[in-house]
């Protein structure tokens, strides 16, 4: 008598980036044989560490160094990988997806992890050759190719990506102007004092800073030739990098009728309004918040995987986030509410000779925010104190000097958060 084998349900993953594949990794640990898994990715590679793109640009890493999951990993886990073939349509009635190359697959569960799209300033000349964003390996390859041919670059945006791009191009030998709308570099992560130290460091590396500067257009004939600013000045450049932010990539979900606002709206289980469809990472909106850092994506992956594995006890709660700049020789870390306000007080350490600045923001003997420049080795510990709401009263007078002065026996047991 023939034995009938029941078909395993199929999980289709749209997006081969860090959030989607981290979810798959978590799922394989919890329920390795539950699903037949298929992954569609827009880029022609395995899964790579997007956080390390700045080190790829600066020449400190090679493409092979930043790969997280090579094609052989997918094969070893029985995962069908469609690299370089993004999904272009979702039919939720028939429960099918269709890729750009025409591959059609049915799904029982769908995971959308389409990430984000870089914001392109809506100015004249933004489509000229030589204008790039800083989002993937192909962008880095274009920047490296330009640095081999041209001398002058302009980077628009003084946030994390912009500073990392400017530093990387400078290390490649280009003359780089960094253009930022605010008078404070990294204004989402730093206060003015720390930003001044950062600016001085970047200028010492040969970068030209244009702060409080609004870009009104890009100019050039065959190729971009420079940036025009609102004050009437011009910055000549043969390469212009736009690093002015990202927005959730929700167009595919929207076109299939999945409810979206600023991102794909998900609940505490990372489920969309369609109970068969989940979403994680930079494409989602959870309780009005969207996400651009890796830590929330990892936690979303953990929660989503538990529900896909039918262990439905976990709930996603957005927590505090921490930021670290990935520029060799610049030690910078910020976390929590580092600006403060009514009801808060500051502990500040300044050591101009060694270019060290620390600012800790307290509320009722609880640490709520931290900015560290020049000495960030205790960043992970301060972040733990913020997350746990630890009462710091016993060592308040020593808190600025770090963990070893406050908890000598425990020092060194916790690494710094990335």
TrEMBL record:
- Residue limits of the NADH-rubredoxin oxidoreductase C-terminal domain? 322-389
Query: Which keywords accompany this UniProt record?
Result: FAD, Flavoprotein
The superkingdom listed in its UniProt entry is: Bacteria
Family stated for the protein in its record: Belongs to the FAD-dependent oxidoreductase family.
Per its UniProt record, the required cofactor names are: FAD
Q: Which Pfam families match?
A: Pyr_redox_2 (PF07992), Rubredoxin_C (PF18267)
User: Locate the FAD/NAD(P)-binding domain: which residues?
Assistant: 10-301
Q: Name the species this protein comes from.
A: Dyella koreensis
Flavoprotein as UniProt keyword: yes
Q: What is the designated name of this protein?
A: NAD(P)/FAD-dependent oxidoreductase
């Amino acid at each position: 008598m023939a034995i009938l084998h029941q078909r395993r349900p199929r999980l289709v993953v749209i997006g081969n980036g860090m959030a989607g594949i981290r979810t798959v990794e978590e799922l394989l640990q919890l329920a390795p044989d539950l699903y037949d898994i298929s992954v569609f990715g827009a880029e022609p590679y395995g899964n790579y560490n997007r956080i390390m793109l700045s080190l790829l640009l600066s020449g400190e890493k090679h493409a092979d160094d930043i790969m997280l999951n090579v094609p052989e990993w997918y094969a070893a886990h029985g995962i069908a990988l469609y690299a370089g073939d993004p999904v272009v349509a979702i039919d939720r009635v028939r429960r099918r997806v269709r890729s750009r190359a025409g591959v059609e697959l049915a799904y029982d569960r769908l995971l959308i992890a389409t990430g984000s799209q870089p914001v392109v300033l809506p100015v004249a000349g933004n489509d000229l050759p030589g204008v790039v964003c800083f989002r993937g390996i192909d962008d880095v390859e274009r920047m490296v190719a330009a640095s081999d041919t041209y001398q002058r670059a302009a980077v628009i945006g003084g946030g994390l990506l912009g500073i990392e791009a400017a530093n990387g191009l400078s290390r490649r030998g280009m003359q780089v102007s960094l253009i930022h709308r605010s008078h404070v570099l990294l204004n989402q992560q730093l206060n003015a004092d720390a930003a001044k130290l950062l600016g001085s460091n970047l200028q010492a590396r040969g970068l030209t800073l244009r702060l409080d500067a609004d870009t009104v257009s890009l100019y050039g004939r065959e190729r971009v030739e420079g940036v025009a600013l609102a004050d009437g000045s011009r910055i000549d450049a043969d390469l212009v990098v736009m690093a002015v932010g990202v927005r959730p990539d929700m167009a595919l979900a929207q076109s299939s009728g999945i409810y979206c606002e600023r991102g794909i709206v998900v609940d505490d289980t990372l489920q969309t309004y369609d109970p068969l469809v989940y979403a994680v990472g930079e494409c989602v909106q959870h309780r009005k918040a969207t996400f651009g850092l890796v830590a929330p994506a990892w936690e979303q992956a953990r929660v989503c995987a538990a529900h896909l594995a039918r262990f439905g006890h976990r709930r996603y709660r957005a927590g505090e986030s921490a930021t670290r700049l990935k520029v060799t020789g610049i030690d910078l870390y910020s976390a929590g509410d580092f600006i403060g306000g009514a009801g808060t007080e500051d502990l500040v350490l300044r050591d101009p000779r060694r270019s060290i600045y620390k600012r800790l923001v307290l509320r009722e003997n609880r640490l709520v925010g931290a900015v560290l420049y020049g000495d960030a080795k205790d960043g992970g510990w301060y972040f733990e104190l913020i997350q746990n709401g630890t009462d710091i009263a016993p060592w308040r007078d020593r808190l600025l000097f770090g963990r070893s002065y406050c908890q000598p026996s425990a020092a060194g047991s916790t690494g710094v958060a990335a």
